[in-house]
Amino acid sequence: MDAAEFRKRGKEMVDYIADYLEKIDKRQVFPDVEPGYLRPLIPDCAPQDPESFEDVFKDIEKIIMPGVTHWHSPYFFAYFPAASSFPALLADMLCGGIGCVGFSWAASPACTELETVMLDWLGKMIHLPEDFLAGKDGQGGGVIQGSASEATLISLLAARTKSIRRVQSEKPELTEADIMGRLVAYASDQAHSSVERAALIGGVTIKSVPSDDTFSVCGSALKKVLDEDKASGLIPFFFCATLGTTPCCSFDKLLELGPICNKENIWMHIDAAYAGSAFICPEFRHLLNGVEFADSFNFNPHKWLLVNFDCSAMWVKKRSDLTGAFKLEPLYLQHHYQESGDANREQCNKQENAVTLELRFTLQRLDLLRKKIYCSFAFLKEKYKHWQIPLGRRFRSLKLWFVLRMYGVTGLQEHIRKHVTLSHQFEHLVLQDERFEICAEVVLGLVCFRLKGSNELNKALLKSINEAKKIHLVPCHLREKFVLRFAICARTVESTHIRFAWQHISQLATELLKTWQQNYHQQ
CATH classification of 147-310, choosing from 3.60.20.10, 3.40.640.10, 3.40.50.300, 3.30.70.360? Predict the structure, then answer.
């Protein structure tokens, strides 16, 4: 395919995608296929000779679309939103076209510098404390990870390294293996499974902290667990607080938890994967109060801020905590300005202190200012490869740049508020039906509800909903209860779709209860 054909086929693909998204409500939200459906539809081996674009294009509808779950359908109410917008799609095209691998500033200066600025933009939108922003000479800063799971893992590994070094400085007789065996991480019993997975990868013990009646972790619960573990000779080092838990969108109490973590030298990471986008709205910003106590914070613009997957925003107060844990510098990734231009603030200070006082006063004032500014920026420019697990990174900040500019803060706030309004509309419909109950407070765009009755009854209801394939839901467990989750997801969802979904659920519930009553009388 040459440039001329790319122009032609690219326009065809844009038209196809636009038609797909405009008419997605006409497609069945969940596919009819069974596992293994695709293999019989394609050859066993790749073609020896080239095939035409027409042949590939026609197989999209024949082979791919029958097996697609349509996440952006207004009838998709499962999991959490998977953000999408036309500006983000266009930015993804440009990202693919540029095709840089931005592991260092030299690999693509624009890739690194735009990311630095976009994370500052985003941090200011949610009023993060200045400590988390890169600015011109800050010690913190933001980075785009692939997912909140990656952000949690990175934070835990950095906390592990920092704690090992701290304990070794206090107790030199302890080996690294001794300390590793005593380290303990903590998270709510409502936290995402990725937190436990991070601990498994990190080779440390993790313990659940019991949540209260609102499914939130409070300070007293954490302190109780910490006191018990410290008395047993263990070393608490990491706590993952959750804002907007996956089961029911509950919020851990940061203002109670933060001071405890700070006092105990425990790294506090905040996972706000879904809920974080809502903090751009003043009426929801209070949910982030206490972030000032955290060491790291993360949320996913690719969930609720109209930025296509993957784009997970992570901030740290001290970026040296990350680079100190992950820094490796093979020769082929080194550049002359890293060696002679002072790659970070610490190097700047070290070299400056080595200069005699007399010589320093002979330097021109302008040259000193230039070096100071360079040192402030050099760390961030050079070191994103030390902020993540992989070396390579895509130009993901383009998506943020396009979306933030073309929607503006007000447009994104309208999108969040619309979803919250629709969730309360669904909540109101549930509450009007005495057969159902709401199982957790509705704060943002998630409603947890169930039929009053047994778990088996609610499992049967969910089964009938998903087998009908007119809408799609997933469940959760809240304590002993099997609960249905209704998440407002699609950019295009409207009040009519909410009413349709409820009428459908209500009708299926009526049919199910009638069947169960008949079976009961027969028994």
Answer: 3.40.640.10
